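Long-time lurker. I teach an intro course on protein structure, and each term I like to show students one example going from raw sequence to a predicted 3D structure in token notation. This year I'd like something fresh instead of my usual example. Would anyone be willing to generate the tokens for the chain below so I can use it in lecture? Attribution to the forum is fine with me.
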Amino acid sequence: MSFRLIGRVLFVIPVILIGANHLSNAKVMAFMVPSWLPGGIFWVYLTGSALIAAAVAIIAGRMTYYAALGLAVLVFIFALTIHLPGMMKGDGPMRMFSTLSFYKDLAIAGAALFIAGHARLGNHHA
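-- Reply from a regular --
Happy to contribute to a lecture. Here you go:
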């Protein structure tokens, strides 16, 4: 087993679990959808499904560039619209949760861009 494959597996496992968490806890997570965005729980289900779909595409080596790029954009949007505002206005445990989630989303976005960059160079199994 190559380091690339191990790296891809280690990358997609948390993404799949985060996506599954969105789907199984949508009602609890709906409060995190910004109030200016209509649809509430719909966005939780959509983003959970998108996270899982991107992870499956990356591990399968299918449309890796687009899946990784889409994942990077999605979690960067999460960081800016959900977690950054939570860091700014939250306090106590909620502020810590938002801060750690912000850092986690930046890490996922960065790794996804790295994978997309390798896939763009023709190495679809990056």
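Some talking points for your students: Residues 92-120 form the longest helix (29 residues). Helices lie at 3-24, 26-29, 41-60, 64-89, 92-120.
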